[in-house]
Each structure stands twice: as structure tokens, then as C-alpha cells.
Amino acid sequence: MPQGDTVAEYSTYPEAQAAVDRLAKADFPVKQVSIVGSDLKSVERVTGAMSYGRAAGGGALTGAWFGMFLGLVLFIFSPSGASWPVLGAAVLVGAGFGMLFGIVSYSIRRRRRDFTSVMQVVAGSYSLVVETELGNRARNILNRPDAAETPASEA
């Protein structure tokens, strides 16, 4: 956890970023600034219902990428010079195994989770924390209406 003075508090991350930009434009040593998120919440957004088709498609896509990787490794490092059909076969075999794995794993966890989602951690507020000896200077810069245009002079 960063030590120092909290010089400002903002409700959104872009506001906190803008404040750090103002400090940077005023020649403040921004290396001494930290943005600290507080009141963290876990937010899970449901993106859709899960089905066997969706599990098969997602598994096939993942498997195809893995197959392409293995095919490229064979293509590049093969002493006999593997051809393009070897790469294509690796992609198809990877997609097939990925599809099979996707369907089997969905069948196993079907009763517990029948949807897809994206999870993220969101902060309720963001504090600007600076080293104690620089706290007053940072507050003065942030409270000036012309802080973005006029660089601060060293005192």
C-alpha cells in the first residue's frame, strides 16, 4: 500500500488519470503519485446462455489455435520441410480435439453453470496518494484553475 498523503479523491478512474496528467503538465514528479482504488466490488456480467453448440464452437476455436501453433512448430523445425497440408491438418485435428474437450467439459459442469460471463473488479472511488513532503504542492497544483497550462516553478 502506498504511503503518503491523500491529496484528492475521484469517483471514476478517468478523473484520477486526468488529475495525474495535470500534475505531469505542471512538472510535478509523477513517479511519486499513486492511484488507489477503494471500496472494491466484484462485478460479473452475464454474456449469454451456454449450450452444447456454444461449447463445441468455443472448444473448436481454442483447439484450432493450439493446432495452428503445433503445426507452425512442425512446419518451421521439421528437417524434411513440412508442407502446408501438414499445417492445415494440425489445425483441423486441434479443432476436432478442442470441440470434443469443450463438449465433455460442458457436460460435466452443466448443472452448476449454464451461462457464460465476464468478471471484473471495480472500485467505488479512487484516491491520489503522494509522498508526504509533496502533498501541499500537489494540492496547490490540482486546486489551481490554470494548472493544465502553467508549469509549476521550483521553490
From TrEMBL:
Domain General stress protein 17M-like: 6-82
Membrane-traversing stretches: 55-77, 83-104
Database matches in InterPro entries: GSP17M-like_dom
Assigned keywords, A-Z: Membrane, Transmembrane, Transmembrane helix
Pfam families per UniProt: YflT (PF11181)
Protein's recorded name: General stress protein 17M-like domain-containing protein
Annotated source species: Agromyces atrinae
Organism classification: Bacteria, Bacillati, Actinomycetota, Actinomycetes, Micrococcales
